[in-house]
Predict the 3D structure of the following.
Amino acid sequence: MKGNTLADFMDDLLVSGGPEKEFVFRGKRYFMESQPYDINPTLTEFVIFECFGEENYIFRCHGENNAECVKQFETAKIFDGLTIYEAEREIEVLYG
């Protein structure tokens, strides 16, 4: 991972009150954010989407808290069939 270490990247998702990151993977730019879910503010909405175009979501979680969504993110094969741990060498963090 460029622009961040994998450990710092993952710690930020849990420690800093939720993710807000912009990164590039295989030439595509993505944005990650977490916030209270509009429909049910007791839930957390954690999303990752392509920055340009139609905001194509590659990951979306509505969990009881941010930790629950991060756990789902860790196992999701959203990076061309790879998890964050498998794809991290190809990720460049631009913000966050």
